[in-house]
Amino acid sequence: MIFVKTQLPIIVTFVSAFIVVASYYLDIQAWKTFAAELLRWNVVLAAFALALGIGGIVRLHWGRIARRERTAPYSIICLLSLALFLVVGLAQTTRGKAYQWLWDYILLPVQATSYATTFFFITSAAYRAFRIRNSYTVVLMVSAILMMLRVGFFASVLPFTPAVSAWVWDIPTTAGMRAVTIGAALSLVGNSFRIIVGLERGHLGGGE
Amino acid sequence: MLEKLNNLDVRILYVLMVIAATFPLLWPMGLPLPISEQVKASYNAIETNIKPNDLVFFGIDFEPTQEAELWPQVLAVGRHVASKGARMVLVNMIAGGFRYEERIEDVLIKQFNMKYGVNLLSLPFSAGREAAFQSIVADFKGLYKVDYHGKTLTDFPLWNEIKSAKDFKMYVQIADAPDWWLRPMSQVKGLLLWNGTVASGASTMAPLYQSGQMCGFIIGMSGGAEYEFLTKRPGPAAAAMDGQSMGHALIILFVILGNIGYQMTKRKEAEAKKAR
Amino acid sequence: MAFNKNVYFHLFVLVAFIATFYYTANRFRRGGKFSIRPLDAIPKMEEAVGRATEMGRPVHFSYGMGAFDAQYFAAFTLLEYAAGLCAKYDTRLIISIYLPEVVPMTEEVVRKAYTDAGKIESYRPDDIRFWGGSHNPAMIGLISREQVAANFMIGSLFHESILGIEAAARNNAIQVMGTANTHQLPFIAAGCDAIFIGAEMFAAAAHLQPNPVRVGSVFAEDWLTRLMVLLMAIGAVLATFGNTSLSALLKR
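Above: the input entities. Below: the structure tokens describing the complete assembly.
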């Protein structure tokens, strides 16, 4: 059992990652073809992960309904919605009229509304966070205001703002982001290497 | 009195923001919208590089949550590419993006007389994101067997003309700021990369544009609006820019008022401390 | 052997990393001494859990809504740390998850943390909540309803970072976030009490559980970063004088 839980995943990870990574550095067609096949299997696995998610959702909400919790009515709506999309999708595929109606008139407005809460939260975050407490917050506030002034109506009313904010964008901001990106990328190389060779096993509950 | 500005009830801010953003949608103000150099350069990247019959890979990778920012970009850029006479292959790697692929396909067929299967093709959703792109780079034709509508791809002349990802002139990706598409696609030699992304994702993609890894890059609704004006077809982004400008103005006002309140509060506390 | 001629520099970076990693890991294994810059966010996490314990309110943890990449593995280490603290102080830990494939790994990590703390009976699998596409409204609702006193969001963050920040700010929660996604750094820097910027998430693992593997990796990454800076400086000077040979070399 320990072999299946810890050692087998490490072996599978190493072998498949080695094949795919090596195909990047080698110019051997047969190797590249096999690596491409493995990547296609990964696409299939990712699709199955969605099924795993459905199982998780059902388990959580069924438990709430069974225990008659306060939020059980919402769990019932959640499971009914899941069932509706599943049944209609399987019956008609995503190209069916009913599925598209559900998508366009229920899911899309709900998701857009959920994202629209960002609009309000950004407002209160800006109001709370952009205070002149020290030099860093002054820089943060001035940069944020410059970025807001560089687009739309303000760029025509305040003619200097596009040039100033373009300089702030192109030089210090992009330079800083480039530095963070390079640092994070090297860390990703390190972390990925440790996972591939089995030196990092935290996700298997096993430490190193 | 002014100290109260330091702790305004956020609900007042929310109500004012809703009014500021929706008022211009109902009564358009027609505020001027200058075109930035970056959007002009991105427009020219398509204008100069895409010739009639060039193959363009068009990725539509966003969820309904980003529709407001990215759908206008899809419309504006998709129409521009189609107007250049390019052959387009639409692709989608995000589960929620399939409807947008269908919609832009309708627009391209109706407005540009594109013939499905001859100069336009829609590929189905593939799970796996970066892994799916790696598959496209490694074995494009092996990944896809049927099109978005479920028909066998080999029935279409356009599919039979494509050998691999190297046949494409440009990859236009409208997505919510991932670099997971750029890493694999930059491996295809000679493929030009063009990106439209959300405003918050701009900082991630900006170094890649500056280094020349991408030939075009537009940001958010403002980028979409400016692109619409450049293609002489103002659309949903242009209509919403008035609201965005008003929203920005209100946020700046709240920040100024908040700082006034904060400084007054600090002064009062300092005076109280001194008095003790 | 037929090597791909276009990726020699990439191969050089990989080989340089592996060589440096083994060298530094062996040095640590022999000497046992190293120093990593103190990361403010780690004691802040302990302070946050302590405060949540005093107030009798739960701690919230989320990985964000990004794709499954190496950031999740850094997040697992920090989750194990947070779960260990919560187990030690008997504080409830609620985890919001967006990706289904991460659920079993999260259960393993948290179970291990509770087992190591000797509090396996306190482990509540129902507090590991998979939300899927409704992650954001569910997370906001959870933070508000449960009145969380500490909010940790570590991993591949997108716009949910600002939602979590504001929702938790209503409860005056202590917030610690970390991501390598540069587009979210300004938001978490403005709104949180402490943050992990990019590579700091990975270095935090070496800080919390130092062993030859992790320390070797952090040091190798550091040295490679210094090499990159040196190459950038030399390249910038050469490019200023119109010489693009280094740039051409790195494209190979």
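Note for the figure: Chain B has two domains: 2-28+242-275, 37-234.
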